[in-house]
Amino acid sequence: MTPQDPETPGSTPPQTPPQTLQQASLQTPPQTAQQAPQKGARPSKAAHPSPETRSRNRSRGRLHDVVVVGAGPAGSSCAYWLAAAGWDVAVVEKKQFPRDKTCGDGLTPRAVRQLADMGLEDALAGSHRYTGLRSCGWGAVLEMPWPEHPVFPPYGYTITRHDLDGLVAQRAESAGAVVLQHTEAVAPLLAPGVASASAPPRTADETPPSGARRLEVHGTEASGAEASDGEANDTEANDTEAGGAVSLPECAGLLVRDLRTGRTREVRGRYVVIADGSNSRIGRALGASRRRGYPLGMALRGYYRSPRHDDPYIESHLDIRDSRGEVVPGYGWIFPLGDGRVNVGVGLLSTEQRWKGVNTSRLMEAFVAGAPKSWGLSEATSCGPPTGGKLPMSLAVQPRTGANVVVIGDASGAINPFNGEGIAYGYETGRLAAASLSEALAGDGPAALTRYDERLDAAFASYYRVGRAFVRLISNPAAMHWCVAVGMRSETFMKELLRIMANLMRPESPGAAELGYDVLVRLSTLLPEPPSFS
Fold it and tell me: How far apart (Å, rounded) are the C-alpha atoms in residues 241 and 30?
């Protein structure tokens, strides 16, 4: 089930992608919960406050239906769908838009579809539109247009997160969400009994529950510069060795700090959504942890001026090598941005002891030095030092739900292990969470949040299981060489593989990719999974 795009005059609701989002209406709040302006009321003659001040004033002292931590792809998507249905949503965002974010900056057809459903594709008109993937390896080059699909478009866009994330957050705000920028989530607030199944409908003058306690957050998120010089290592402070929490505790909201004034206050909600990215300080504080047997990506990217900035293909290189000249499990990329620059990066999959100690900065240097000369990549064309970070994949983070808490996007490890794509899955997990939250708020109570996990499993469990098997396979150097060197010699094979790796299969019109994927799903169930939380 998923929320449906609200109908607008002269338009029809878009078809929901069947692979990820099951058909369902987003539940709306009762009529009494909506505030109507008093008849005859006049605007104040006082000077108009800034948008940021208005957002803070709207949030102060209220018990929101939902509080979202983070206004990235997942958080803003969830906030948009809930606010568009009429629910009271507050989003806490540490940065001020526009702000930079380390990313490959590529929107695949899946991501474009989600943005279109939110009414934002027209806003991408000034961005670079590309038509497919150019794959390079072992001396071979294949250009593969995005495959035709009944739901997803045959094109993508490249746009920096500096420009993209603010668009989606603003869309959520225009739908009615309160977006608190320059506001840091310091710690979650725990309060027994909040958002219980028997909670009465919210009223306009309802006061927040008392007795909440703060849960301390330890550690700070790594900066881009720190991450960029790191070595591949799949150990995190909150990775779980064994067992793991079964459910996240109830959360009454957040202790937040206004980064302009330094003042702290509480932002309370019936339900809380954790969407604070791959480091997820708030998620870790509540007990969410990464399964260390699951894939973890290490990525590094930088911008370069290039004469090929408007190339119609994004480009991936499948044979990046370490300091010993050995191929490593990962890839290099060059994504044209259409504004005179290209996004250049390397991604490494850290799955075994063998890859610990590989320095991503040196991988990046070697990749730039060996890139095709036509791109014009050099120290002279670099726009600045690269930045990077770690990417938990394959829904590696658990638990993802509690009595009134859900974890989404990168914070849940939703990144695709096949290709490192995270934006689309941020939008999709945010939308799936919005469906369950709307049901909970409409009367089903916290029990509805278990449907979020069920929807995630229905959408991605089999796909990500195959992805984990794929990562283990390419972690073997001989297998990696055979897969890429042999596969690159067959354009037909690679086009079908692209459909699988980009998750653009057509269950209702099965072809070679779909039939092959079904075989892989069956085989993956016979292979041992990494030990739970080990």
Answer: 45
In terms of C-beta density within 10 A (0-12 exposed, 13-18 middle, 19 or more buried), how is residue 213 classed?
exposed
Name the residue among 4, 161, 165, 164 with its Cα closest to residue 70.
165
Listed residue (152, 185, 159) closest to 75, CA to CA: 185
Residue 25 has pLDDT above 90, yes or no: no
235-239-271 Cα angle (round to 5)? 140
Q: How far apart are CA 360 and CA 337, in angstroms?
A: 23
Q: What phi-psi label fits residue 503: left (phi over 0), alpha (psi between -120 and 50 degrees) or beta?
A: left
Helix ranges, 247-395 (H): 281-286, 360-370
Q: What angle do CA 365, 418, 288 make, to 5 degrees?
A: 95
**Block residue for tokens 């098997």:** 469
pTM of the model: 0.83
Residue 479: the pLDDT is: 76
Chain segment 308-341, per-residue pLDDT in tens: 999 999 999 998 887 777 778 889 999 999 999 9
Per-residue pLDDT at 3: 41
Crossing angle (nearest 10°) for helices 491-501 and 512-526: 60
CA atoms within 13 A on the CB side of 365: 10
Which whole number is the average pLDDT over 376-394? 95
Residue 349: per-residue pLDDT = 82
Beta strands in 306-396 (DSSP E): 313-317, 330-336, 341-350, 387-392
> Which tokens sit at 145?
């247009």
The token pair that represents 435 in the structure block: 């469906």
**Alpha-carbon distances of 39 from 30, 31, 180, rounded to whole Å:** 21, 18, 29
- Per the DSSP assignment, residues forming a β-bridge with 397 are 290
SS3 81: helix
Distance (Å, whole) CA 93 – CA 180? 6
**Cβ-Cβ contacts under 8 Å for 444 (sequence gap 6 or more):** none
- At 319, the amino acid letter reads D
DSSP state of 271: E
Whether a cis peptide bond, with omega within 30° of 0, leads into 399 is yes
Rounded mean pLDDT, 371-380: 97
pLDDT at residue 8, as a whole number: 30
- Cβ pair 323, 362 in contact under 8 A: yes
Yes or no: say if 48 and 57 are a contact pair by the CB < 8 Å rule.
no
The SS3 assignment for 71 reads coil
Short-list 63, 316, 101, 370, CA closest to 224: 101
- Both tokens of 104, joined, read 């490959």
β-pairing, 89-92 vs 178-180, is parallel
Contact indicator for 207, 115 with CB cutoff of 8 Å: no
pLDDT at residue 244, as a whole number: 52
